[in-house]
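Moderator note: this is an archived Q&A kept for reference. The question asked for a predicted structure of one protein chain; the sequence and the answer are reproduced below.
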Amino acid sequence: MCGIFACHKHPEVHKFKPQALQLAKAVRHRGPDWSGNVTSNNTILTHERLSIVGIDSGAQPLVSEDGTIFLAVNGEIYNHRILRKQLKPEVTFKTHSDCEVILHLYPNHGINTPKLLDGMFSFVLYDSKNDRTIAARDPIGITSFYQGWSSKTPGAVYFASELKCLHPVCDKIISFPPGHIYDSATGKTTRYFEPIWWDPKIVPSTPVDYKLIRTTLEKSVRKRLMAEVPYGVLLSGGLDSSLIASIAARETAKAKAKAGVTNGSAIPHELVGIDDEDDSTVTALPELHSFSIGLPGSPDTVAAKKVAKYLGTVHHEFNFTLQEGLDALRDVIYHLESYDVTTIRASTPMYLLSRKIKALGVKMVLSGEGSDEIFGGYLYFVNAPSKEEFHGETIKRVKHLHLSDCLRANKSTAAWGVEARVPFLDKQFLEVSLNVDPAEKLITKERIEKFILRKAFDTSDEPDAKPYLPDEILWRQKEQFSDGVGYGWIDVLKDTAEKMVSDEQMKTPKPEWGNDAPDTKEAYWYRCMFDEQFPAQCAPTVMRWTPMWSKVTDPSGRAVSTHIAKYDQ
């Protein structure tokens, strides 16, 4: 992950530049490797870089050959090698960066450029000839991105990877909508991402194709191994992260065999990434590390250890104490820029783990976000009244991922200069999995949650195939990440909140909270810590995660009646 701060049409851009560089510094944790900026006309782009691809040549902002187009990007373009081949022969690339392809697509494709990209990204591009800025965000909002305006500088538009860059200068801020592009030439923000599944009222009837689900997810993981640095996988021991780890282990082994290297030695390469000729990917350092965290003896770390041993990854297990988790809360909220209970609960161990990962020299990890939204994996889905409502809820959850799990995965890791990639949210995989008849996804007495995903990777009827995972993992019941790290974590948060917030405070919430007043002491506690660090204009960017079809408001999986705890804490 990198960090962006930009302003289009600032009335005094040269006077503003020193402040702009300070605002950009607020996201240097996202990109600790290098800083860059460019000012042209009344527009300034700044960039804080985390180098993973094109590490020796991809400093940003990138500049076109004629010096008229400038680009700052946060993200990865997985199909950049394919796109490079489609460009005219006279196009000259100055770097090995996967992001440079955007610079060369823009002159011919304009605001349609994002449609051609397969990846996770937020970018701001400035065309100085036409005094035009375009800004876009990936289809699901895997990368964090915000847009702001200031009554002090009417006509100026601000963009940043995080709120903390914008609130000192903007009095209106929005979370930039995923799958959209802003064009200063019209002042409009339009949706470029238009998949078949977007309308929740259109309920698909396509029968499940288990083989297609398997091969599409495998290809998604393969794309995301594009790197010139050591990489790993976040392994909770649950179904989603374990499947991603299993596929990554297989693809890493293939990369080693194809290059004829052993023990993670560097593979000679020019450009890393997926290629259209043989559907393979090039990664520079093929050695898979896995990482898990939890309280001592927690469900996740026990299961993760079993998975890592089965897959043969280089496994790193970390424990944290309840006090260490509590001590980190304020910093977690600062980096998350959220007061949502579910997000904070799950982000704290992820934030602590990311620091350990960075200390080991790993910059990129694969993670399992998105599966529960796609397949209706949260335990409350058992209460869905019909397949139509089940489907509508999955679409809503996917559309809101940028405010919940994607926000958590992005910001918890970026806080320490680590990049999280999420294979389940691949465009092609979404197209396949969200167009399955939702009747196939319903949770019944005969079918555990995410049955079709489990079945897709069940090789019991393939006698010659090596199983992707042991059955005890493949068919393990869902744990919310905040539960799986150890049930004591949720309990200590509730107990501490009980001491920090009085009954009187709960009865008299702050007037400025309006209709968004917290309904528990834990939520009240988090909201106060948020308000201490962020002004009022930041609050509308936060969404609170609550389960549907349940009288229980606590988002923990344990609070749902279908959950059967298999571990005693």
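Archived answer notes: The chain has two domains: 3-194, 210-563.
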